[in-house]
UniProtKB/TrEMBL annotation:
Organism whose genome encodes this protein: viral metagenome
Domain Methyltransferase type: 55-141
Protein name: Putative methyltransferase
Keyword 4Fe-4S: no
GO MF: S-adenosylmethionine-dependent methyltransferase activity
A Gene Ontology BP annotation from the UniProt entry: methylation
Amino acid sequence: MLDKISEFYTKSFLLHGATSQGVGWKDVKSQDLRFEQLCKVISKQDEKRGITINDFGCGYGAMFKYLNDRFQIRRYYGYDICSDIIKAAKENNTYKNAVFIISPKVTHTADYSFISGTFTVKLATSTKIWTNYVKNTLIDISKKSRKGFAFNALTIYTDWASKDAYYADPIHFFTFCKQFISKYVSLINDYPLFEWTILVKKEEYYK
């Protein structure tokens, strides 16, 4: 399943390079708007002190640059399944606090974890199988996130749909996170993109 996804993104990246289009996004403006929503999971206290980050499905490292410009990042771990894209991420981000890893799973524990656009493309995988993959991934990443994590997905409330993309019900995933991961869950569904963002905070967030 993930081999096909890797092949899809590798082809797109080789065509467009280290750009938002190269990882399936429209433009930098919409990409930054997504990052802005995701970063709302970071506490006010942590905005001013050093934090560690997991970025699952990091692409060429665009979110690292966004985070590094705005927060004190002690360590950033970026994960992707595409070797060509990870190679570019390492070349484009030579900061000592950034580590890029070829992996289908998060392997380090960090204060916060982010999943931006990683669940968008499912190709021929059935919606049921992909939904189970998403849920299992969220549970795994929660275990690797001390204070919280945030993720986004395309919404089922859209004017059009691509057969290769995954569209998710925000209420379904809000309920899932509340029932199985944490009682501290927020849904952001009021920004001008056909998607939603969920913030999940852990007990440690409030200490």
